[in-house]
Amino acid sequence: MSEIIYDEDKQVFHLRNQYISYVLCVEELAILAHAYFGERISNYSGGRKYPRFERSFSTNFAEITHRNYSRDTLLHEYPTIGNGDFRTPAIEVEHENGATVLDLRYDSYEILAGKPALGSLPSAYLTNEKQAQTLVIYLQDQFAQVQVALYYTIFSELPVICRSVKITNNSNQVLHLNRAMSACLDLPYQDFEIIDLNGSWGAERQISRQAISPGIKTFSSTRGTSSHQQNPFVALVEKSTTENQGQVYAMALIYSGNHEEFVEQDQYGQIRVACGIASYGFSWSLAPKACFQTPEAVMVYSKNGLNGMSQTFHRFINQHIVRGNYQMKSRPVLINNWEATYFDFDDEKIKQIIDSAADLGVELFVLDDGWFGQRENDRQALGDWFENKEKLKIGLSGISDYAKSKNMQFGLWFEPEMISENSELYRTHPEWVMATPGYGKTFSRNQWVLNLSRKDVREYLKHSLDQILENVAIDYVKWDMNRYLTEVFSIELSANRQGEVYHRYVLGLYELMAYFTNKYPQILFEGCSGGGGRFDLGILCYMPQIWTSDNTDAVARLKIQYGTSLVYPASTMGAHVSAVPNHQTHRLTNLAMRGAVASSGMFGYELDPTKLTDEEKEMIQKQISFYKNYQSLIQSGTFYRLRSPFEGNETIWLFVSEDKSQALLFYFQVLAQAAPKLDVVKIPGLNPKEVYLVNGQDTYTGDELANCGFYVFPFLKGDYQARIFEIHQIPSKNL
Ligand code: DGJ
Q1: What's this model's pTM, rounded to 2 decimal places?
Q2: Which residues are catalytic?
């Protein structure tokens, strides 16, 4: 259960559930201040009321003469700049006369049952109003007639608060918004460290941890997408925080475009952390009476270390972000022809792949890039979403029917947001390209981006994709996006509104994703952006899974999947077994290792099954039936990171079923050792008193597995090895 308590005398708001408390208060002169966020407290009696004393050189309010109360030092809920607080603000505006001051004072509040939707932005949802409550705090700038509504939704069963902000211009002048963060948290001095997820193409979501030092540390994407380089997530942890213990304050943004997370340590060691749309390239013109809605931020508190944080995110994402027919449903084991054929395929080749895959037990065939227009290579045809009947003589329906005749489903690749110079679409509509008049149009992968902020572009995409989706029996769509945005500009907007284009692009994208996912609820959609370049909570509101990385090398995937798991559950991570030598790293790993890594996500194959040996075929059949046996455990079980690939040669992770009756432990060794250490694994999360059978051989009680563990013996022999331990509860008389 969650509660929102308002103490009118003290003007204190206390949001809490069984896990967390969040306290904010209206301070002198109606300034909204932050008091506490952390483990639940039964009562807040004012211990974090900001002490009144003078700090030299600090600012004081115009209304008072004493010098012991200052915006400069206070912990704020939604700070401004220009009138006394010199730290990075949550909001920046420009009034019609060019002034930039904003003086936000508390005005009123509202408590709502449940959680309001965020207009056309994706956001967390409830299945029942009792799952959450929302506090809305209205702040006002009386002079400029600007209202800022702060939304705080506290969930009943999770240590989670969702925040967003709605800014309304109640004046009769135009207001420019130059920054509007979704959430901002001021914390008292504490020796924290920062964790973020950074990377590149082929190495997404690598974990970095660094000390906080005085000044500002900003993490952001200015690429128009959430990006391979910086995931919209940041966490503050205590120095002593590990996977299993210690405090964590985390924020993740439900957004797929430019984003920014910053951590600022001020002159007195106080910390400000915030996330929202990146201020680079952003400004929004608010006409009189217009409002702006920020994306939603998800704040998680854990006192049980990083596993505690991740398990909360995973439950939250599975229950309140991912939606639709496939939210809980098992996802089909798929085969994708990309690495098998690239652009070089015809009917015969595709049929052979389907035949061999069907024999292996694969459930879905995905036809990747190359099926449309004159798409013979990556220099042409993006935008021409019609069949190439010369290449596939039986057509898409023929391929779909063929797959179905083999008891397989059929999936198709699209890259709707893109256009090639050599395409019918570009010849007809050159004005649809995202471009700045007078400047060259920067290429990336030989392609340009369509300006999705334009309605005509969106209508074209709806119509042309509908032609395929309405007429071909399609069960799965891979929605790809293979470059970032440059020369961002829209001829449809006036000069002082060009700062809206990045965000309008994302709104256009969400309109399209909502259109297709609502219209075709039976289709399983998988997001993709050159692998995991847009792996974020925004996409997951439409598509239950995302291709984690183009890098399918099992060793590289250990870090990618481990890092991704900090926020995102296995149910969201597309993971495939590919051929060796690996196409990205040229590494040779054995099939068992590749199968074990991929089966820790939403499983599939990305290779040519017609080239497999009999022995490999037999192994793959076994891998698929193993995966089908454990699919629901992997998709919805509790995930534990037990040993990090960022720290050593071994990686260990574990899935435990909700009822604790079964578990799967994955143990990976990267390089062979001549004199290996005798490793002990311990298995947390089981029922201490129950008895478990490990790999059909040894029996242990849950508390023995958790505390004493067992040796990993015999040793794993050779480089790139995996061992899986299958753990099942058995009646206790068997001990
Ligand atoms: C990038 C994706 O990540 C790949 O899986 C593949 O679909 C290619 N694009 C196709 O162009």
Answers
A1: 0.98
A2: 480, 550
